[in-house]
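Changelog entry

Holo records now carry the ligand SMILES as an explicit input line rather than a separate metadata file. Below, a converted record for nicotinamide-adenine-dinucleotide, shown in the new format.
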Amino acid sequence: MAAPVKVALVGCGTVALHNHLPGLALAGARLTALCDSDPAVLERARQQTGVRATYSDYHALLDADCDAVIIATPNHTHAPITLAAIAAGKHVFCEKPLAMNRDEAAHLLQAAEQAGVRHMTAFTYRFVPAMRYAAQLVAEGALGQPYHFRSCRLQDWGSRAVGWRQVAALAGTGELGDMLSHRIDYAHLLVGPIASLAAQLRRYLDRRDGQPADVEDWVALLADFESGASGVLESSKLATGHGEGLRSQDYVEVNGSEGSIIYQLTQPLELLLATREHGLRTLPVPEALRVWPGSPRDPDGDPRSFRYDQLVEFVQAIVEERPCRPSFADGLKVQIVMDTALQATRERRWLEVSYG
Ligand SMILES: NC(=O)c1ccc[n+]([C@@H]2O[C@H](COP(=O)([O-])OP(=O)(O)OC[C@H]3O[C@@H](n4cnc5c(N)ncnc54)[C@H](O)[C@@H]3O)[C@@H](O)[C@H]2O)c1
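Structure line, unchanged by the conversion:
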């Protein structure tokens, strides 16, 4: 049997503990080194994992024994850490949004391709079984010609402080990068490239728990897809009463000439299909799509464990020496849409999206 892939973790905060440690265990990879700039966070991760090689500086971590690096730090650090990891010859799994802007994201993709390392962007919700089933149904033509794509991400974060996420210099954007980036990726996955868009960003709270906030807490996009379909995408942190996380609303609907499908994150193992003939009915996700190909995850286990499959994909791509899905190219495409949305908001007009 081949030796396990050795992975180092940079950033041992929330997403690392909730998604990436269980993901690495599922993927059969070996966690060999940890890095966090916060000593208390690093010590907690050391105790939790038993990994002895710990670093406060990612440059030092890159000398550790590892084939690949997971980057789970605030957005402004993604580019420098990724570039250093690529320069050290490591495969890179980087959190979303991939970078702070289009140029940075393009640079990361180019550097990774030139170095011949595997690269993956953490568009975690592509791994929801119901989203994979939705993509399959649309691709098979089960809905006919897609007319409309609609996504709505509603959470209630109230006025609590959200750390680096409320600071533009550290996060780049607010709700746009934090939540809508995943939904732009859904749109690409289901309906393809966006030809043009209009956008609006709004900040309702200038302070959260007394600390300044300078990013938006609501965003909406109107989109025309290259396919001719139209899109409406909305995301809010201030949808009072909606709760947070996996239990709050993440709704996607595609209306085609022959039918409509509805995806809801709260129901990761089913879709709703509407046709003229049968009205609205529930479609369970087929057994074969309930876990990622090759994942040892129990299809009847906790449905929220879909999140761990993304590291199965990353590790398998390293072993099989093939591109990851989704890659930095997908991260760049989303970044391009995000940058266009920021410009469209500033200029208060429709803009073409240029992926080239
Ligand atoms: N894919 C998803 O579903 C998903 C979910 C949550 C967060 N995220 C993304 O993951 C990233 C981290 O988010 P989080 O919620 O875990 O944040 P967090 O604040 O909980 O954790 C980030 C950690 O990075 C550490 N850190 C900061 N700068 C560092 C540096 N230069 N070197 C080493 N460590 C450093 C911090 O001390 C902190 O412990 C963000 O990019 C976020 O957008 C993605």
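Spot-checked after migration. DSSP finds ten helices and 17 strands in the chain. The pocket of nicotinamide-adenine-dinucleotide is lined by residues 10-16, 35-38, 41, 58, 72-75, 77, 95-96, 122, 124, 163-164, 178 (CB under 6 Å).
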